[in-house]
Amino acid sequence: MPVHDRREKIRTLVNERGYAKVSELAEQFQVSEMTIRRDLDHLSEQNHIQRTFGGAAALGTQQPDINLQDELNFSTKPKGKLVDRVDVLVASSINPRYDSVLVERFSKKRIPVLAESLMLPRTDSFVGIDNQSAGLELGRWAGRYAMEHWNGKAVILDLTYQLSNTQMRSRSFIKGVQEIIPEAVERLSLNTKSRYETANQLTRDALTVHKDINIIFAINDITALGALHACRDLQIDPDDIIVLPFGLEGDTFKDVLVEGEYCPAGLAMFPEIVGAVCVEAAILAFNREPLPTQFVTPYGILTRETLPQWYTREDTGWKLRMDTVCERLDLPLDIVSYEPTPDRRLPEHIGFIVPFMKHEWYQNLIKTMDSYARQLGIQVEIFDVDKDLANELDLRRREIARHAAGLVEAGEVILLDEGQLAIYLAEELKTSCDITVITNSIQVFDILKHTPDMILILTGGAYRRSSQLLVGPTAEGALGELRADKLFLTVAGISFNFGLSHTNISEVTIKQAMIRSAREIILLADHTFFGQEATVQVAPLSVVHQLITDYALPASTRLDLSEAGIQVTLAAI
Predict the structure, then answer these.
(1) SS3 of residue 206 by DSSP
(2) DSSP code of residue 531
(3) What angle is formed at CA 202 by the lines to CA 64 and CA 167, rounded to 5 degrees?
(4) pLDDT by residue for the chain (573 residues), tens digit each?
(5) DSSP annotation of 348
(6) What structural domains does the chain harbor?
(7) What is the pTM of this model?
């Protein structure tokens, strides 16, 4: 069958069924699973289906995105750097590897930084609920439900995430269930990466293998939605299983509560309250007032019966009842009155870092912050995480390359490895004179081939198109007959246990040959490479004489490297 015809049939089948596994499609079309994965990737790129873990789903399966830029009167991509525009930053954790990079930039300019949901390093305070108490309370609710409906049977699937606050939610939920039912079993705890597709597929697999699971705990709404759809697709009786979300972040699960299928309750974190508290806390930080370690925001367990006490359904969606909030909840700051205080200065701009724009939690948090701030004459600006992180790391890598170029002296022979850092170093060396450069990188060769007063040696070897490198015995043999004063080495992973590691064996062997040919090994790596272990070990860390990295590498790691005899040079932007 022609490729085009097979893909059209796959597209039709996925959209008719709603979901299809790679293995099922491979069997039906009598091709390899690798071929099916390529087909699904192509169809996903063409926006015909949505790629999922282990298969594909129809486009309508996931909730549609909300275009915040159209809905709100502010731009999510304003010009210039955010650090130069905002007076206070509210930051949600993106990834422990990157959080320090972001916060560091604002701290250097003495801009107050508040964390949302999870305390981050070098922040002034954070706004969020008590995850331990909330998880315990929801777990106790689940335990009582299991006692009433299943005679105390409680077999739990925990859909969690890697951050400490979400891990606390999961552990506390399990503990709460076991306080009511000591014999309750945690069958599986799975990291869904806080994504719908992963949660959907992992839940399908878990329920297929472990048919005794009857309680699914999800650390947020989008994870719970993936689990709920898995239950529906597997046609599990709603009387036999429940899905309990930690969030009730937007309209989706409030509507689910009303329907009552699979989801009898959920823990509400009230983004309408958190967003307003974030603005008020930002004002306090801007005025340099003393801040608590945490502004503890309230939560509540809502059911179909109690939902109307807290929210009213309007044409535009569910609206929080502030009368109930004022009567029943303890708020960390006054967010009800907007009376101006004469001696209180207001920031002009508050920045907000958003890691998951598709999540209803952040969509509603942004709306609330924007609405509340506008009443005070403050503008909220959204931080484009992916774009800004890429720009930030790019700047750091260019500075690492600049520092490396400064180590090259006239008359030296240097070995130049592959990768983005090597390319940046080659660009820095274009004006160098009286040096010899040996490389197996076609990209490096192309950058330097027109440089006068430079001897340029290409190793030869088998051309690896995907990485534009020359590899294999010919390249390694050429290196065996050459000697260099310095090797500027790059790898995919660096750890104290596994040493230097990389992803492809043919590239590993030529890196090893480079190491043998050089008198001094200089490792080029920004902080994101540390703590990573790729597939194949290149060499132990002890082969490295000098490391050029950035300031985001923790001081403790730098100290450990220095104690191991490696000279650490920091490149500042």
Answers:
(1) helix
(2) T
(3) 90
(4) 788 889 988 988 887 777 787 778 888 888 887 788 778 878 876 778 877 645 777 765 443 333 444 444 444 445 566 678 899 999 887 665 566 666 777 888 889 999 998 888 778 899 999 999 999 999 999 999 999 999 999 999 999 988 889 999 999 999 999 999 999 999 999 988 888 888 998 999 999 999 999 999 999 999 999 999 999 889 999 999 999 999 999 998 999 999 888 999 999 999 999 999 999 999 999 999 999 999 999 999 999 999 999 999 998 889 999 999 999 999 999 998 766 667 779 999 999 888 777 788 988 999 999 999 999 999 998 875 655 566 677 888 999 999 999 999 999 999 999 999 999 999 999 988 899 999 999 999 999 999 999 999 999 999 988 789 999 999 999 999 999 999 999 999 999 999 999 988 889 999 999 999 999 999 999 998 998 888 899 999 999 999 999 988 888 899 999 999 999 999 876
(5) S
(6) 3-61 (1.10.10.10), 68-129+271-297+332-384 (no CATH), 131-268 (3.40.50.2300), 406-571 (3.40.50.10470)
(7) 0.61
Task: Give residue 58's identity as a one-letter amino acid code.
Answer: A
Task: Identify the CA nearest to 543 among candidates 506, 480, 501, 504.
Answer: 501
DSSP code per residue over 43-102? HHHTTSSEEETTEEE-GGGSPPPP-HHHHSSS-SS-SS-GGGT-SEEEEE---HHHHHHH
